[in-house]
């Protein structure tokens, strides 16, 4: 049995096998077979090519730059500031127009502060005291305004006092106004200029309409009737997030402006345009939530006639706008060059050019060494390491590593 088995295995090594097809004359089986073919073809044409456009090359490494410019003026009359006209230099921070900008809508003002001793605010728990020993000198008040002097101060007949501190006095004690100081800021406008580039396809675009009409940007406002205008009314931007400008202006908030570029670069450049989306980014679900709102403090310094330094402290509430950009560009070019035009074989050979014989490569390198710089005085090119692309005419070309015996 062993010899017979080995003999059969040996003979089978020289056998030739071919497939045999049986054609079944059955309409149900044939119909099922054709339906399966049509389903696969439909999936490829409709989903893969028409919906997902998998035949296109895609660039998601979007390069972007944002420039913002706010415009608008308003007038206020308060006891702390008196009559005051507010322009863009007063209420926009930072002034240089970045992708993140802040518009002041409400203020708590503490004027004429100077460095001296005064009682700490009663609203700060760490400043409460019963006797002087509760206020060790030289220690700062946690979440307070200054450094303890060692004295406990009482106001009237109160049993509990507050520590005396050395600080900018008087300390801030006023609460946030219930009505926004700059409520009319909802009519201010912001000009958002966005430059984008898809480096893979060397394609650049801006969100500003390409027009020779100089009056266009002076009269347009972004909206359903004018989606190509890059000038936005602040009140409209807030309302598109589902919020009220007058409500958010009281304690501040954060608004996100999303610019999305989804460009099919097979079409005309004019058909590559941005889409805008607006969202409120801070916590707006609870009106009294500690995480909602946005504020910070800053001061303006000056000296009196005696040369003593004073300052006016501002606690600013307002709306922070974050402008974010993302996008992708898709292109059909490589597939057309390689397969569909008359000289496709030429482009295909150039794209996938390779050197199979290292001896040929060595002779080419030796020849270039002997010849030296050409008549045009071209400088010697640096070596290309393995896996590194050399860039030529905007295309990235892969090159083979030169053998060690022929490196310069």
UniProtKB/TrEMBL annotation:
Residues at which ATP binds: 69-71, 189, 295-297, 315
Superkingdom as given in the UniProt entry: Eukaryota
Topology relative to the membrane, per the entry?
Multi-pass membrane protein
User: A GO molecular-function term, please?
Assistant: ATP binding
User: Where is it predominantly found?
Assistant: membrane
Q: Which residues cross the membrane?
A: 31-50
Q: List the disulfide bonds.
A: 118-169, 129-152, 135-163, 220-229, 263-272
Q: Give the location in the cell.
A: Cell membrane; Membrane
A biological process term (GO) from this entry? response to ATP
GO cellular component terms, alphabetically, are: plasma membrane; postsynapse
Pfam families membership: P2X_receptor (PF00864)
Keywords tagged on the record:
ATP-binding, Cell membrane, Disulfide bond, Glycoprotein, Ion channel, Ion transport, Ligand-gated ion channel, Membrane, Nucleotide-binding, Receptor, Transmembrane, Transmembrane helix, Transport
Q: Which reaction does it catalyse?
A: Ca(2+)(in) = Ca(2+)(out)
Q: How does it assemble?
A: Functional P2XRs are organized as homomeric and heteromeric trimers. Homotrimer. Forms heterotrimer with P2RX1.
Family under the similarity heading:
Belongs to the P2X receptor family.
Provide the function of this protein. Answer: Receptor for ATP that acts as a ligand-gated ion channel.
Under the heading PANTHER family, the entry gives:
P2X PURINOCEPTOR, P2X PURINOCEPTOR 5
Return the protein name. Answer: P2X purinoceptor
Query: Taxonomic lineage of this organism?
Result: Eukaryota, Metazoa, Chordata, Craniata, Vertebrata
